[in-house]
Design the sequence.
């Protein structure tokens, strides 16, 4: 966590100081047709794939996923885990909005943006909240698995989704690359903190009531 906070601070200082402008610009333009910057690289199905990946970090998808899993935990009588998940995600949303308001970085203006935008650029909200939600869910799921390969599989799937969401935001031209990089770092740090706190609760005492099968199972 200390390393992640240090990395976020370094990126933030570089962004505020304008040191990342050349890097951001070159990478953003590299993902566009050199003859027409309004056209992302690749065929139309690649553009559609980018929008689909971006949607995985959208407010509706993440809210639906979080509430659905929290509801499942509640039905399983894992009430503390359910509340913990909701608290982790809502506080993550609050942190994202505070950072956006604090830095108030303009969106990229070099290329056309392939999706609607209505908030500041730094850090990327889609990328950060995807990291918060998917990685936190992966951590909670991994705690219920016994074998390392199963834990690694779940966490790897979450990482792939988070990477896909972040890359799609740059590909669609709605974020600078450093917006996404900073969001990945702070989102992963938040999920790691939630995992550490969940482990602390485990050691302090059982988190939930026993989920023994009921008479209808």
Sequence:
């Amino acid at each position: 966590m200390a390393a992640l906070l240090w990395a976020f601070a370094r990126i933030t200082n570089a962004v505020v100081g304008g040191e990342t402008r050349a890097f951001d610009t070159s990478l953003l333009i590299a993902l566009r047709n050199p003859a027409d910057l309004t056209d992302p690289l690749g065929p139309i199905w690649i553009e559609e794939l980018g929008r689909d990946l971006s949607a995985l970090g959208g407010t509706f998808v993440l809210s639906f996923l979080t509430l659905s899993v929290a509801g499942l935990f509640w039905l399983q009588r894992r009430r503390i885990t359910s509340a913990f998940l909701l608290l982790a995600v809502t506080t993550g949303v609050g942190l994202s909005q505070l950072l956006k308001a604090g830095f108030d970085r303009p969106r990229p203006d070099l290329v056309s943006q392939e999706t609607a935008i209505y908030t500041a650029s730094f850090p990327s909200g889609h990328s950060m909240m995807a990291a918060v939600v998917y990685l936190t869910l992966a951590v909670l799921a991994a705690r219920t698995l016994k074998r390392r390969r199963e834990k690694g599989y779940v966490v790897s799937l979450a990482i792939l989704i988070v990477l896909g969401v972040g890359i799609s935001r740059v590909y669609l031209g709605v974020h600078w690359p450093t917006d996404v990089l900073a969001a990945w770092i702070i989102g992963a740090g938040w999920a790691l903190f939630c995992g550490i706190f969940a482990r602390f609760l485990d050691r302090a005492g059982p988190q939930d009531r026993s989920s023994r099968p009921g008479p209808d199972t």
Observations:
- The chain has eight helices and two strands.
- The radius of gyration is 19 Å.
